[in-house]
Amino acid sequence: MTEKEREQIALFRYGLIAPLLNGQVDPKAYFEELEGKVHQIPYYGERKIAVKTIKEWLLNYRRHGFEALKPKMRADRGNSRRLSPDDQDHILAIRKKFLHMPVSVFYEHLIQQGEITKNQISYSTINRLLKKYNLAGKIFSAAPERKRFAYEKVNILWQADLSHGPYIKVKGKVKKTFLIAYIDDCSRLVPYAQFFTSEGFDGLRIVTKEALIRRGKPTMIYADNGKIYRSETLQYACAQLGITLTHTQPYDPQSKGKIERFFKTVQTRFYPLLETDPVGSLEELNERFWRWLEEDYHRRVHASLDGKTPHEVFHSQLENITFLDDPSILDVIFMKRVHRKVKADGTISLNKQLYEVPAKFIGYSVDLRIDDTGVFIFEDNKKVAEAKPVSLTDNARVKRVRSPFSLTQLAEESKEANRHV
Q: Where is the Integrase catalytic domain positioned along the sequence (predicted)?
């Protein structure tokens, strides 16, 4: 099991315990709902999960954080053994991809692929395993019921989304803009929003970090089903901060009506101001938007707030807001993560660029974190080294230290030559 797979499994486990962690569900009812339910688990495939197991995950997270949700590395790797629970899960995951095969053919397939050997695992062992989990059929779950909701306290839930903005000129070229925003479900206050010229995750990273710093930490984030809201970086960040990240169904804008209504307000009240007085840059667009947001939207009476403004409702509940003790942790939490194996020459390849790492990592898979300042190697969530871009011309001029074996051989050759002089 790779480190990437361990992290994906941990994210899945966090997704199950997050509603319990944040007190958004009744534990008894939640466990009854999960009892007997089949889950699609990364690496393992379809499995049922015991309530006792979920309670153990919840306890481990509360004691040791996100890292405690990762499966433990096997200590007996490479040794002969019977099927362990991890081995069983791995075979079940493979079986799901080859349901059309008879068990006898599937057994031969496992042997041919090097997953098992006849001497280790018998046909009857595999046959019993597959029968136990009844993999011949597919199990379908009923569609979830959707209910209208509204929270009485601020920072319980933030709705998130992206909207198409106006066209502006950037360096003489016309560019389309995109507005990325969060809205607090209770107060309708916008924790943070900003226009960008791209729909990429970099914009969401900026907006999320600023929203957390300015307005505190929400219990839940209810996001669109789009690519940037399903990014692993956002999932990791929410898991590290103890935030539940949930997603709407595709093509279901009604389920996130409050953020949709905010975008409509922007279109009807802010965009007309740009028609009479156009902006000349992205910076000017954002400056004018932020001014309108604070002076107009946040301080205008909202129809659903009983004659109050978003600003009044949010600031009347400051005692319910959890601010970050150390906002600088966001810089690490929101770094992009990738895994690479270090080559024999001490390099890794990343985005078609070679990077050098310390020689002690040669042959190992390393956890890389990336931000605007560089590429770094992390171990146990701590920065331990930096990966630097390779300069082939500089390396050609670097003096190499001779191997001690080469120096010994050279000395012996020199002595031998002196004897014949």
A: 140-318
> Across all residues in the chain, what is the average pLDDT?
83
- 380: tokens are 């146990």
Predicted model pTM: 0.67
Torsion angle, alpha carbons of 314, 315, 318, 320, to 10: -20
Q: What is the pLDDT of residues 297-347, one digit of tens each?
A: 999 998 888 889 999 999 999 998 999 989 989 988 888 888 899 999 999
